[in-house]
Amino acid sequence: GTETLVKTGGPLATFIGIIVLGVVFAVPLALMTAELSTMYPENGGFVLWAKAAFGDSAGGMAGWLQFCCSAVDTALYPGLFLTYVSQTMHGDLTDEAKWAVKGGFIVAITLLNLAGIDSVGHGSSAMMFFLLAPFGVISLICATGAFTGTTVTGWSFETANLAGTIPNPDWGQFVLVLIWNMGMWETASVCSGEVEDVSAQFPPALGITVVLVVLNYILPIASFVGLNGDSSLYVNGFYIDIMKAVGGPFWATWLGVSQCVSASGLFTNGIVKNAWMLCGMGEQGMLPTVFASRLPWTGSPGVAIAVTQMVTVGMVLYGDFEAVLAVDMLLYTASLLLEIASTLYLRHSEPDLDRPYRIPCDGAILYIFFAPSVAIVFFGFAMAEFHDLLVTAIFVIVGLVLVEAVNYCKKCRPEWFAGDETVGHVEHHDPFAPQGDKPGDDDGRMYQAEAEDEFDRDTRTLLPNEASIRGIA
């Protein structure tokens, strides 16, 4: 996570990058998520946005790209959890113990997801606060040494380290890791159908989280860089080594345990993202309806979680995933371009559709608002290695084939794709088609929820955004 930023770009570039992307990248994506989640408050999130704008095939591609990048991403966390456990215990584990730790980790988080979205929401909130505790304490202690050079605990702190630069920065990897840390805002939208009164909860929650994310990155990074300014040493888990050197076993262990919790939270959110996306696509009839089936005692999408975890376990068994992290982010950014295009197109094609929250700009200003985000994405593409772009292109081609295969199955076996009649359905139409040819209700609207008395939702806890706990891992 953030150690890689320091290693590839240096401390000064890291601080500038986080602030800049927080303003021109994270804020537009968070506001996009707030607008479209309140516009289409159903499970599936970004898949439904692309479907509403450009049709089933575009929605299917958005789902495929996000599923692939999230599957790679999620499969990293059992190994990352094992790394933190080993560093916290200050010793090497046997091969049998390593697999036991990974297996127990996967089973425990899977059971948490099967317990229902309420349990995941409360569990994720607890994980986030447990994670932030040691970093908050360390940041406060380091702040006491910012002017004196020595903290109240006697740790040596060099403020000059914060302006450090490195020779020959790897800007390509730096930007992709920044996107990895500052993106993923649309993840919250995949389970918006489980949140009561989305329009009241999503906008303020996302706004608060943007501020927390930026502070969550800058303050801890500044603290650790002040304690150790050698950027070449910054690899995953190096924060634990720093605290062991300056504070001793207690601080290293506390920080190590919190980073284990971080990996748990990220793994949990990865499962939520893919499982509830598949569930939403099943509810909308974009995938077989079996994906929308729920466990009767918890309401969790059992089939979708099972499929998600089978893919994750298969990738964990495959081996080393660090080599494909660049492909992971290229897939994500490709999907992100589709989501931004959907936002802009829906503003043009459906300007009067109800939006309980609306990004406060229109016309050319709206395009300018998203322009920096798009420019950052294309910069990441331009700096990527050719073989990473080639692999990404192969994933896109495979996705196109699978989407068309699903569309063919829908024609042959429409009963498999009946969807869930208890949710509001999102439809696409051509705004230039004759009024009578548009799907939906009589006035041509693309979305119509069930009547309130037929659309009973339980009150759900909104999950912390994935970015709020990603970077420290």
Task: Give a verbal description of the structure.
Helix 5 runs antiparallel to helix 11. The protein has a two-stranded antiparallel ribbon with strand order 1-2. By secondary structure, the chain is mainly α. The longest helix has 35 residues, at 249-283. Helix content is 65%, strand content 1%.
Structural class by SSE content: mainly alpha
Give the N-to-C terminal Cα separation: 6 Å
Largest sheet: 2 strands, antiparallel
What global shape is seen? globular
Strand order of the largest sheet: 1-2
Topology:
Blueprint: H1 2-9, H2 11-39, H3 46-54, H4 56-89, H5 95-114, H6 117-143, H7 171-182, H8 198-227, H9 238-246, H10 249-283, H11 302-318, H12 325-349, H13 363-383, H14 386-412, E1 425-426, E2 447-448, H15 467-470
Antiparallel strand pairs: 1-2
Helix pairs in contact: 1-2, 1-7, 2-7, 2-8, 2-13, 3-4, 3-12, 4-5, 4-10, 4-11, 4-12, 4-14, 5-10, 5-11, 6-8, 6-10, 7-12, 7-13, 9-10, 10-11, 12-13, 12-14
What is the compact description of this entry?
By secondary structure, this protein is mostly helical. Helix content is 65%, strand content 1%. Strands 1-2 form a two-stranded antiparallel sheet.
Give a quick set of tags describing it:
15 helices, mainly alpha, 473 residues, 2 strands, two-stranded antiparallel ribbon, 1% strand
